[in-house]
Amino acid sequence: MQESYEEIVKKLDLEDFISSFEAFFARPKPIYLQGDKAGLVPFIKELENIVFTPPPKVKKLENSILHLKKIGTLKLEEIFEFIKIIRYFSYLKSLNSISEDRLFYKYLQNINIPQELKELINIFDVSAQIKNGIYEEYDSLLLSISRQKTQISKILGEILLSNKLTPYLVDRQIHYINGNETLLLKSGFNIAIKGIIISRSQSGFFYLLPTEIHNVHQKISELEQELQICLYEICKKISSTLGKHILFLNFINKEFDKFDHLQARINFAKAYNLEFVTHKTTDKTIVLKDFIHPALKQPKPINIEFASQLLMITGVNAGGKTMLLKSILSSVFLAKHLLPMKINAYASRIPNFKNLQAIIADPQNSKNDISTFAGRMLNFSQILNTQDLIIAVDEIELGTDADEASSLYKVLLEHLLDKNAKIIITTHHKRLAALMANDSRIQMCAAIFDEVLQVPTYGFLHGSIGKSYAFESAKRYGIPSDLIHKAKKIYGEDKEKLNELIEKSAALEIELAKKSSILDLKIKEYERKKQEQQDVIESLKMRYAKEKFELEMTYNQALNEIKVGIKNKETSDMHRSINNANKILNAFKQITSSEHFKSQKQFKAGDHVRYGSQEGIVLAKTGKNNELLLIELDGGIKLKTTPEKLKSSRSNFYKPIQQSQVLKQDKKQKIELNMDKNTRNSVNVSLDLHGLRSEEAIDKLDKFLSDALIAGFDEVLIYHGIGTGKLSFSVKEFLSSHPKVVAFSDAPIQMGGFGAKLVKL
What we know:
By secondary structure, this protein is α+β, with helices and mostly antiparallel strands. It folds into five domains: 5-133 and 232-272, Orthogonal Bundle (MutS, DNA mismatch repair protein, Chain A, domain 3); 151-219, no CATH class; 286-491, P-loop containing nucleotide triphosphate hydrolases (Rossmann fold, 3-Layer(aba) Sandwich), CATH 3.40.50.300; 543-652, SH3 type barrels (Roll), CATH 2.30.30.140; 659-760, Ribosomal Protein S8, Chain: A, domain 1 (2-Layer Sandwich), CATH 3.30.1370. Helix content is 46%, strand content 15%. A six-stranded mixed beta sheet has the order 8-9-10-7-11-12, sandwiched between helices. It has a five-stranded antiparallel beta sheet with strand order 16-15-14-13-17.
C-alpha cells in the first residue's frame, strides 16, 4: 500500500518546502507528474537555459469546457481565462531564443493555434477588458455611460455653488450612501432643492439625493442594462467560436498544466539555487553528495552511498539518526516527482521506486483503540508483499519488549529483503543489530558522539554499530549527575561491557564478511581466467585441425589436376593442369587469409557481443597484433578474449533508434500514412492498444506489424494512450528492438500526440 504524497510530505517534514514550490504554479494542482517522467527530463534541461516569462495566474477551466460542450455562453472573465492560455502559448512560439534543433521548439510547433482563436486575442487588453474599436455598439454605450457620470459631477458642482442652498448645507462634501451621491442638509431645505431623503445623520440632519442626480442615475441604469445585453451578445458570439474548437481547447488546457509543471520546477530551482537529479541508474544504489534536507536551518550536508538493501542506523540520541533517515527518503521522494533539491546533482544518483512508505510517527490512537506496537504491526502488514518498495522505519522496536521485537523484526525485515525492498531503519537496541549484522544485504551506519565534548557531532561512521550514550545525553539535557550515577549502578558494568562486546563482535563480523566477499570475487575471477585460457586452447586446436584438413584437401585437389595433365602426355594439357592447380592453391590462400582477416576484424569498439550466456560490449582491440579484444560484460566485469570466443549480439541489429533517426516533420508539412490501395480493405493502418495489459498489447502489436509488412505498408499508427506510462514504455521498448522498424516518433497532435506512435517500416 503506497501512502498518499500528502502523508509522505508531512512525515518527511517537507510541508513548507512543497508549499513554497506550489506558489510557482500558475494554477493549483497536485505536485505529481502524469505519464513518462523520464521523457520530461530533456525538456527541463532545455528550459533551464531559456529565458522566458512565467505564465499568468489562470483558473481551472474544466467546468467552462463542459459548458461549451453543452453550447452554453461563457462570461467575459471565463472567456479571458482561455485567452490568457492561448496568448501565452503564442508568446512561447514567438521566442527567438528557442532554436529549431531543440525538442521544446518541435513540441511548440505541434501546437497549431487555429486562426479564429488567434484573432480573439486581439479583442482583449491585458486587464480582461474589450479594446476600443472592436464592437461599435459596445463602445457607444460605454461612452454614453461615461458622459452621464461626468454630468453627475457637473450637476453637483452647480448645486453646491447655489446661494439659495447655502443656508441649509451642513458641509460642502459629497456623501455616498448606498452608492448614491447625497448632500447633508438642515431641515427646511425643501424651499431650496427637491430630492429624495436617503437617510438621516445622528445629529438629525438629512442625506438628500437631488432629483436631477436621481434622474441621471436612472439613465445610467438603463444604459448599463443595454450594455449587459450587448455584452451578452458579444460573449455568445465568442463562445460560439470557442465551441467550434472545443477539442483544441481541451488539449491546450492540459498542455498548459504540463508546461506549468515544468516551468514551476525550473523557476523554483532558480529562485532557491536548487538542482535536479536526473541521472539514470542501472541499480537501486542511492548516492547522496552534499544533500541538505529543506527543513534544516543550520544544516550539515549528508554524504552517503547506500548500496545494500537495508541501512541500519544506530548510535547516540539526538545525533541525527531520524534526520538521516528522513533525508534519504526525502531525496527519493523529490527525485521521483522531478523536484529540485539542495544537492550536488552531478555526483549523486537516486533510483526510482514505485512505492514509498514511511513509518515514523507514533501510530498510537486512543480514539481508534490502537496501541503503538499494534499500529506498527498494522503498518507492516500492509506492505509485506508490496513490489518495488522503499521503506523507512524510525525507532523500529518502539512500543514493545526490545528482545521480543528484535526477533520479530528480524523475520519481517528478512521477508521484505527477499521481496527486494530497499529499507532504512533507526534503532537504539543492539540485539537486532547483532542478529542481522552478518547478513550481506545489510549496511551499518552509526551516529558519532564526541566523548571529549560530550555532544553528538551529527556525523556518521559507516560499517559500524553505535552506542546510544543514554546517560551522557541525559546529563547534557539537565539530569543531575548523582541520579545518572545511580542509574549506571543499576544498569551495571557487566551490561555495559556486554554492549561493547556486541558492538565489537558485530563490527568484526561486518569486516570478515567484506573480506570474504572480496576473496570470493578473486576466486571467481581466477576460475574465469582459467576457463578462458582453456577455451582459447580448445579453440586454437579446433582451428588448427580445420586448417590442416582444408590444406590437405586443397593439396590433393591440386595434385590430382597435375596428374590428369601428365596422364594425357600433351604439353598444352600439362600446362593447363599446372595453371588450374595454381588457381586452386591461390584461391585457398585468399580464402584462408580473408578468413583470418575477418576473425581479426569482424568486431570493432562499440559492438555488442555475446560471451557465453552473457551480453557485453567491445571496448578496444589489444595484444601485440590486435589479436585480442577487451570487452566489458553487463555485470561490469572486464576481460580479454579472442574473437572466436564471441558472437554478434542481437543488440547490433536491434539498436535503439537514435534521436537523429526519429521522424522529422516540417512546420507546414502534413504527415500521411502511405499504403497499397489493394490492401486497405483487408488490413487496418492503425492499432488501438488502450486498456490492454503490456503482455497482451505486445502480442497484438507484433501480429499487427507482421500483417502491415505483408500488406506493404510504409507507415502505421499505434495508439497506446498516456495513463501511467507503463504501456507507452513497453511499446517503445518493443519498437526499438523490432528488426523491421526503421524509425518511430510521437504522433502529431491531430493524430494522438504523446498518446500514439507513428512507426516507419
